Amino acid sequence: MKDYQAHLEKLRKDAAECALVRDLATDKAKREMFDRLARHLDQLADEVERAMNVRKTG
Q1: Short-list 58, 51, 57, CA closest to 3
Q2: d(Cα 25, Cα 39) in Å, to the nearest integer?
Q3: Torsional sign, CA 22, 23, 24, 28
Q4: How many CA atoms lie within 13 A of 15 on its CB side?
Q5: How far is residue 2's CA from residue 7's CA, in Å, rounded to a whole number?
Q6: Given a cut of 90, is residue 57 above it in pLDDT?
Q7: Is the Cα dihedral 22, 28, 30, 35 positive or negative?
Q8: Which of 18, 26, 45, 46 is 20 to 30 A from 52, alpha carbon to alpha carbon?
């Protein structure tokens, strides 16, 4: 379970960093790319969190 937690924290941190780059970017293409990355990493983190919850209850 610790592995899941470590990966979850890393994904959330990476998503936040992508969102920061997106917010600071002046180039539209760069903003869009980092927005997609941030959303994708958030989705992956959500999946890891769901897997953790399944393991806890299963």
Answers
A1: 51
A2: 16
A3: positive
A4: 16
A5: 9
A6: no
A7: positive
A8: 18
Whether the full predicted model's pTM is greater than 0.90, yes or no, is no
Cα(23)–Cα(12) distance, integer angstroms = 16
> Quick one: what percent of the chain has pLDDT higher than 70?
98
Q: What is the DSSP string of the chain?
A: -HHHHHHHHHHHHHHHHHHHHHHH--SHHHHHHHHHHHHHHHHHHHHHHHHHHHHHH-
Q: Hey, what amino acid is at 27?
A: D
Domain range annotation of the chain:
2-57
From the list 36, 8, 5, the residue with the least C-alpha distance to 21 is 36
